């Protein structure tokens, strides 16, 4: 028996499609071209604080907004978790991933306190990428991390490699030294994601020479465009 869809139901459906940035998209396209973007940390737990007082959450949010815009310009659908109110639980953030093409968590780097106390905060700058090797989607996650890193390098950025240093709390295995990709199986947002997933440390906020640059809208827009290009190139072809 056929069911007739009323005007209210059609409007509700249209509203949902607009919310997720997927107007006029087929179900197959939704599942293969939708990106979930997570703003790392929250207003109440802002993460790292730069030497000049810049909060990591504020940089994460600025970058996420720029990335959402850039991904949509690439013709991709986007779920911006923070725009819908980021849940406090890291595991809860990944529930939106579902059948998405990719889950991307945005962060800016701090350093271990011992490193800072030793006056070594200027030794590293640049980005870092993390994937979990324990997930079924490991191969696709790694492929997307490589694609994003290449695009960041194309605009003059470089990997920091700080997280590979042999100090307590770091020493993360490098999957690709040239591209700055690390394996980190116990990161909650990567461990619980139901789709391919990666975490990007956009830059080293703890480095006082980098703080103002990372906070600039010009940098956020340029780097976000590079990340969006990398995401689009690593996705499977449209059905």
Describe the fold and architecture:
The chain has 239 residues and is α/β, with parallel strands linked by helices. It has a single domain (27-234), classed as Aminopeptidase, CATH 3.40.630.40. The chain is 38% helix and 15% strand. It has helices at residues 7-19, 27-33, 56-73, 90-93, 113-117, 138-154, 188-191, 211-215, 217-234; strands at 34-39, 77-80, 102-109, 128-131, 174-176, 181-183, 197-204. α3 crosses α9 and α6 (138-154) crosses α9 (217-234). The longest helix has 18 residues, at 56-73. It starts with 6 loop residues before the first helix and ends in a 5-residue tail after the last helix.
What are the salient characteristics of this protein?
Aminopeptidase, disordered N terminus, 239 residues, single chain
Distance between the termini: 30 Å
Q: What is the helix/strand order?
A: HHEHEHEHEHEEHEHH
Strand order of the largest sheet: 2-1-3-7-4-6-5
CATH topology (fold) name: Aminopeptidase
Structural class of the helix and strand makeup? Answer: alpha/beta
- Assign the CATH superfamily: Zn-dependent exopeptidases
How would you name the oligomeric state of the polypeptide chains in this document? single chain
The top level CATH class name: Alpha Beta
Strand runs, count = 7
Query: Strand content of the residues, in percent?
Result: 15-25%
Q: Number of helical segments?
A: 9
User: Which range best describes the helical content: under 10%, 10-25%, 25-40%, 40-55%, 55-70% or over 70%?
Assistant: 25-40%
The description of the largest β-sheet is: 7 strands, mixed
């Amino acid at each position: 028996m056929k069911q007739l869809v009323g005007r209210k139901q059609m409007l509700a459906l249209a509203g949902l499609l607009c919310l997720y940035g997927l107007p006029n998209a087929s179900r197959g396209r939704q599942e293969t071209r939708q990106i979930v973007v997570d703003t790392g940390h929250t207003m109440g737990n802002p993460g790292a604080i730069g030497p000049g007082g810049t909060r990591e959450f504020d940089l994460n949010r600025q970058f996420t907004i720029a990335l959402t815009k850039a991904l949509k310009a690439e013709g991709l659908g986007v779920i911006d978790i923070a725009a819908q109110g980021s849940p406090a639980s890291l595991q809860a953030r990944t529930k939106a991933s579902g059948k998405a093409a990719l889950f991307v968590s945005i962060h800016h780097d701090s350093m271990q306190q011992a490193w800072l106390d030793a006056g070594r905060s200027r030794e590293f700058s640049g980005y870092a990428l993390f994937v979990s090797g324990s997930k079924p989607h490991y191969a696709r996650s790694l492929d997307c991390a490589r694609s994003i890193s290449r695009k960041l390098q194309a605009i003059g950025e470089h990997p920091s490699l700080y997280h590979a240093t042999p100090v307590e709390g770091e020493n993360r295995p490098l999957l690709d030294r040239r591209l700055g990709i690390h394996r980190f199986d116990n990161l909650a947002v990567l461990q619980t994601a139901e789709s391919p997933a990666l975490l990007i440390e956009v830059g080293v906020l703890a480095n006082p020479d980098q703080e103002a640059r990372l906070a600039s809208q010009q940098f956020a827009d340029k780097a976000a465009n590079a990340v969006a290009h990398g995401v689009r190139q690593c996705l499977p072809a449209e059905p």
